[in-house]
Amino acid sequence: MNKGMKRAGIVTVLVGMLIAAVVFSTGIGAMPISPMQVIAILLAKTGIRVPVAYEEGTAAVLWMIRLPRVVLGVIIGAGLGIAGAALQGLFRNPLADPGLIGVSAGASLTAVMLIVLQSSFSFFADSPLLQYYLMNIVTFCGAVVAVLIVFRISLRNGQAIMSTMLLAGIAINALCNAITGLMTYVSTNEQLRSIIFWLMGSLGGASWRTVLAVLPFVVLPLIFLPRIAYALNVFALGEREAMHSGVKVSRLKTQLIICATMAVAAGVAVAGVIGFVGLVVPHIVRQVTGPDNRILIPCSALLGAVLLTVSDLLCRTIAAPAEIPVGIVTAIIGTPFFIWLILKEKKSLAI
Amino acid sequence: MKALSRALPAMLLACALLIVNTAQAQKRIVSLNGTVTEILCALGFEKQLVGVDVTSTYPASMQKVAKVGHNRNITAEPVLALQPDLVITTSNHVSPAVLEQFKSVGVKTVVLTQEYSLEGTCTLINQVAAALNVAAKGAALCKQLETDRQGIKALSRPKKVLFIYARGAGTMMVAGKETSLDKMITLAGAKNAADGFKDFKPLTAEALVAANPDVILMFDTGLESMGGVNGLLKVQGVAQTTAGKEKKVIVMDGQLLTGFGPRIVQALRELTQKIEG
């Protein structure tokens, strides 16, 4: 089997998995909706009438609540997957994850501060929804600012030094986490519950509006990253080698950071911190596809979407009507698989 | 004619049933707040409640009603799966995004503001009653509360009471100003020993000794999590206070003490008796 065939096969399998995940997630939930009803409701949206009986309320729940949630899971999962792949390429290290450059820590800090200090701000207290959107915007800005600081620290003569960036990331993470801890400490019980739920991630509260808000931030990197995948392959040989082969290394680094930050920050802003997807997904994909970023990046997007969609389905059905934070589920599903991979790798090393 | 007279009672009964049905409008109510649940039950809507949150612990019949998750992380679908025609809650309990989802699906959603005072309780009762078109019932319930309140014996002297919220010895918080507990302690005629700050603050040994409460007040579940009074006395600083020396630790049910619902007078009576006792 040649390389092209194998790649097409992998992509086909992943697309199949994603379709299956979306279909199941759309069909299963607290509100019982039969598969036929799901099809009928969705067709009715496109104007095709099918003779299947369903209630108005059922249609509304499926269309306004469940479907946006599934779509949001797909988008954010894909974003986390590619961001992980991009950063692992940038750091030339399979253990890099989006948290490394301060995205999650910066976002968490601003979100938690907003939750705790909300009672002190009164100028928008009359509009809870405004508060909610403000939270998304502020969180996004927090994530971007944290990354900017890390990036600025690592610059030397306009060149980002990777080892410095890693250290700067650790420093900013530590600082943000310390202040987040302080905020947690002074928070009231109610606030603490919001904070904990937020720090573990949730796709609840998704609407078409949140989907549209996140979409461009994930779609742009999805389109752009595969186009710089070849340069990233060359970059894997080392910075100097890449420069000699004509890759504009400095620009490449900036592009990677911008893409990864966009995708992760948008996700964190609407769904809280969902760990593990960005670290594990590219790693798992690499085992199957090999290290070529041209295939690794699209496949990471697909698998990220699958993992998050399935995790969200589990988190809202296992303990229904209560919900488990989705970040916990992604870790529980991902970890065994991850460990199995490590063990497999170890065997191949021992030979 | 005979046939008609025989059928008349049945017809009347059918008419009566119809009237009752339209009056109740076939309500399927979901309440996402323990106090609102209590008020609904006091107003006679116990049978119409199809779902409640976990803070709805009273009346006992609520244990049989479907639970829709904890009030802080309630999501829309489990609530809507119960096909309610009314969702009722207070503003500090459900995330704005979820409220928005209820509205987008077209389910009538009533969000009320709860204020921790006797007037606040009455306002809340009246608002719930208004939402369900039983304003007269609400007014009657308020009047009853006012009357009952006159019967509470005042404290012989204003003791200093400190409320400690505990979930095991690791998490211990003290209720300061502007908390529901501060308001209850004040209403009972006692003094909140922790009056130097707002909201809940972590308990420190020195602050505890400095506050030196005569009585320590806790939720029954909270004291249990500490391993009873002896467990509490092991906490640094507790034994050095007047309350610790005299082992004056009183407990109450959390929803009763902080609900500020129809049982507020009952809660006050119990609290004053326990502080006095």
Task: Write down the overall geometry of chain B.
Answer: globular
Q: Total number of helical segments of chain B?
A: 13
Query: What is the second-level CATH architecture of chain A?
Result: Orthogonal Bundle
Tally the helices of chain A: what do you get? 14
CATH class designation of the largest domain in chain B: Alpha Beta
Largest sheet, strands/sense/barrel of chain B: 6 strands, mixed
Distance between the termini of chain A: 25 Å
What ranges of chain B have pLDDT less than 50 throughout 5 or more consecutive residues?
Answer: 12-23
CATH architecture field of the largest domain in chain B: 3-Layer(aba) Sandwich
The largest chain-to-chain contact, stated as pair and per-chain residue counts, equals:
A-B, 35 and 34 residues
Give the strand order, joined by hyphens, for the main sheet of chain A: 1-2
Q: Order of helices and strands of chain B, N to C?
A: HEHEEHEHEHHEEHEEHEHHHEHH
Work out the radius of gyration of chain A: 21 Å
Helix content of chain B: 40-55%
Number of domains of chain B: 2
Terminal CA distance of chain B reads: 72 Å
**Residue share in β-strands of chain B:** 15-25%
Taking all residues together, what is the mean pLDDT of chain B?
87
How many β-strand stretches of chain A? 2
> Any low-confidence stretches of chain A, pLDDT <50, length ≥5?
none
Shape of chain A: globular
